[in-house]
Amino acid sequence: MSFALRIPVRASRTVPSFARSVSLNRPSPPPLPLKDQREFEELLRKAQTPLASSEPDLSVAAHPDARPPVTPEFDGDVNPNTGEKGGPKREPVKRWAADPGGDWSFKGRVSDF
């Protein structure tokens, strides 16, 4: 007695019937002449990479309401006060000198412990 594996014909289809009805011929704009297409692609490339130029324009790079960057307290890789290598260029948590009892600040943001 031999057993044969029977696979229904409908189950062996790999492409669903709805996928065959989708048309790939869609409307599109007419192609540009070769010279105009190259110019368009060059302008598009320049517009997508505005900060890749050699001269950074800081008015474009930062929002007008953005805080100014924090200036480092020392130059080089080693902190002269602590001897730490590769650490932060400013003390990340600094106590307010006028208020010995209280708040800690980082980049102008204050938290109370």
Quick recap of the structure?
20% of the residues lie in helices and 9% in strands. By secondary structure, it is an alpha+beta fold.
Give the beta-strand count: 3
* Radius of gyration, whole Å: 32 Å
Q: Biggest β-sheet: count, sense, barrel?
A: 3 strands, antiparallel
* N-C termini distance: 84 Å
Number of helices: 3
Helical percent range? Answer: 10-25%
Class of secondary structure makeup: alpha+beta
What's the mean pLDDT score? 72
Shape: extended
Order of secondary-structure elements: HHHEEE
**Strand arrangement across the biggest beta sheet:** 1-2-3
Strand fraction equals 5-15%
Poorly predicted residue ranges: none
Please tag this protein with its features.
SDHF4, Succinate dehydrogenase assembly factor 4, mitochondrial, 113 residues, 3 helices
Provide an overview of this structure.
A three-stranded antiparallel sheet has the order 1-2-3, with no helix packed on it. It has three helices and three strands, in the order αααβββ. The termini are far apart. The mean pLDDT is 72. With 113 residues, the chain is of the alpha+beta class. The chain has helices at residues 17-20, 34-48, 58-61, and strands spanning 94-95, 103-106, 109-112. Helix content is 20%, strand content 9%.
